[in-house]
Amino acid sequence: MVPESPTDNDKSIIDWIRYTVACAFLLPCFLVIVVFLKYEGAWSMWLSLFLSRGIYIVLATLIFGCFIITFFKNKVQGYSRGDSRSDESWCSPQDLWKTPHLSVCGDLKSLSRTRIDLEERSGALEREKAKVEERLEEAKYQSALESESLRKEAAITQRQLQQVLEEKEMLSREVSSISRETRITESALKDQARLTTRLEEARAELNRLKLQMEEMKMERDTAVAIAADLAVRAQGAADDSAQLIGQWVRREMENRRKKGNPSMGSTVETDEVSYSTQNIERENSQNEKTELFQESVSTSLETEENQMFLNSMQEEMDHHKVHLDMNADEGTIINWDNEEPGDCLQTFGCGPVTSSAAFRDFLTAHYSQMPL
What we know:
Residues 108-226 form a coiled coil. The protein is mainly alpha-helical. The chain is built from 7 helices and no strands.
C-alpha cells in the first residue's frame, strides 16, 4: 500500500512549528539586547549573567517549544479523525435511500488519488527501467566489443603460435641438416687425412723402391760387365792367376761403384719388413738374370781347353774360398779367409745383389763354363 502525500493542513502545521522554534531561539537574544541597552553601566555583569544562566533559558525555551509542537500535533490529528468519522457517518445513512453506485464515492476518490500516484510512480519506474535497459544494452555492447577484441587477439596469438611452431620446425630441420653435414665433413676430413697419410707413405715407399731399383740396376750392370770382362781376359790366364783375378774384381767393383754413385759409401737405412720383401724380389730377379746369362754364355763358350783351365781355377777358388757376410742394416761384404782385412775387399757399400749367394753361385757357374 503506497503512503499518502501530505495535505495542505499538514504543511501549515509544519510551518507554524518552524516559526515557533525560531521565536523561542530569538526571544532570549532580544531580552539580552534590551537589558544591555537599558543598563549600560553594568553590561559586563549582565553579559556574565547571560553566559552563566543562558543555558537554562535555552533549555526552558526548548521545553516550551516541545509542548507547543505536541499540542498542535494532537489537535491536527483530532481534526482529521473527526472529519473522517463525520464523513463515514454522513455517507452511511445515505446508503439507505441513494443508488448503490453513490455508496462508493469515497472509494473512487481515494482510488483516483492512488491511481494518479500509481501512474506517476509507474512512469518513474518505466523511466528507471528504460535507464536500466539502456545501461544493460550499453553493457552488452561493451561486452560484445570486448569479446570481439579478445577473439581477434586470440586469433592473432594462434597465428603467431603457429608461425613460431613452423619456425621451430624449420630450425630443427636446419640443425639436423647442419649436424649431418658436420658429420659428413668430419668423416671426409678424416678420410682425407688417412688418404694423405697413405699417399705420403706410398710416395716414401716409391722413393725407396726407386733407389733400390737403381741400386739393383747398377749392380746388375756392374756384375754383367765384370763377368764379360772376366770371360774375355781369362782365356789366356794361368793356373796361379785366381788371386789376381779376385783382387782385380774387387778393385773393378769398387771403381765402378764410385764412378756410378759417389755417395754409395754411406749406408742406406730401410725398414725390416720392406727390406725382407726387397731381398725376396731381388733374389728372384737375380735368379732369372743368372739363368739368362748362363744360357747366353753357354752357347758361345764350350771348349775342352777352357774346361781344364776352369778346373784348375775351381781348385784355386776352393783353396781361397770367400766367406761373405751380409749385414741387414749396412749391406757390406766382410774380409776373405786367406788374407788380412787390409788386403781384402774394404767396406764400400755393396748392395744385396753383389753380396748375395746368388751372385756368388753365378760367378762360380760362369767360371766353370768359361773356355781357356
